[in-house]
Every structure is written in structure tokens, then in C-alpha cells.
Amino acid sequence: MQDKLLESAVESVSGKTGVEVSKFLFGKKNVNEFLIAKKIKLAINQTRNVLYKLAEAGLIAFTRKKDKRKGWYTYFWTFSELKAWELVQKIIMQRNANLQKQLEHRVKERYYHCENCNIEVSEEAALLHNFTCQECGVTYELSEKDKLITELKNKIVKLHGDLSAVAGNIKVLREKQTAKNIKNDKIKQTKKKNERRAVREKMKKIEKRIQKKAQKKNDKK
After folding, report:
1. H-run or E-run covering 143
2. Which of 1, 9, 155, 189 is the most exposed place for a label (fewest CB within 10 A)?
3. Cβ burial, residue 50 (10 Å; 0-12/13-18/19+)
4. What is the share, in percent, of the chain residues with pLDDT greater than 90?
5. Where are the domains of the chain?
């Protein structure tokens, strides 16, 4: 897991340790939680806390196995690359929505700033205080918005590029998942057919034995 967008998304829900755990799990299946703790050099309880955060976000799934002798369960974890990219997509869409709102406000509204204090206020707030900074008493100046509007637009364009790349990754992973599900369904169907065939063959053998026994009785008579 080398993609910065992916790492950033994982970190947002589980911190830097969550990124370490996810990197270790990436591309693996059913990894023993004690092995995870050993590799990232954390106590098992700390490791479980991180795993639970990742699981709550839907980024990892687990299976568990009961120790017949000791009676406790050991958990085995698998990282979901598809869910991780879907989280990235959600975060980018939220950022895009926020930037769009900022851009809309900047285009429609006017803002004022105090050069001395390096603060900015809306026109309504500036008017309320007679266009005077409440911190230092200096008169507010009208903010230059063209530069900021251009910066916001550039950020939005970049986010759209990121969204396109992320959507491509999600599409590929979903197609792989669909193909895997179809393959598994075929395997299950084949297994059921074989089981039904085995049952029919077994019933035929039983019927033959019954017929043979009946025939022997008739022959004795």
C-alpha cells in the first residue's frame, strides 16, 4: 500500500498505527492477530484496538477460530482494498463539496481583512464593527478574491482528477470481486450437483441391495 491517498484515508480513521497495520495486511488474507502485533511491535490489546477501528470503518474483515484446548478465540484479519478506495472516494467527494461551497461564497460575497492581524471577516461582520478591526483598531481592507478563486478552482480540478483515478481503481476491484463471486458460485453449484449425484447413486445401491434380498427370499420359496 504505497498510494498517498489510500494512506491518508486509512490514517483518518485509525491514525498512523492503523496505516502500519494496513500496510502489513495489504495483499494478505487471514493474518493471525498475534503475528500482526509482533510485526508492528505493539501489545496485543493495542493491536486489537487499532484493528477494531479499521473494522468499524469497514476496511478489514475477520474470521475467528476457537482453540479447543484453551477455549479462547483467535482472530484472523484481511484488508479490503475495495473498501479502502471507496473510503478515499467518499473523503474526496466531501472535500470537493466543501471547496465548491467556498468557491460559491467567494464569487458571490465580499470579504475584508486586517493586514496587521492577518485575519479576514465577512462583509456583514466588517459592517457590524464599522469596518474596524476589533483586535488592533486598523481599518479593514477589501480582500482580493481573484487569486483565491483561481486557487480554489485549481484545487477542485485536481480533486476531479483524483476522483477519476479512484473511480477507475474501484471499477477494476469491483469487476474482480464480481468475477470471484461468479467463480465461487459455480464451485458451490458444482459441489451441490456432485452431492446430489452422490446421494442418488447411494440410493440406487441401497435399492439394488433391497432388490437382491427380496430376490433371494423369492428364490428360497
Report:
1. none
2. 189
3. buried
4. 70
5. 4-79, 87-97+154-221
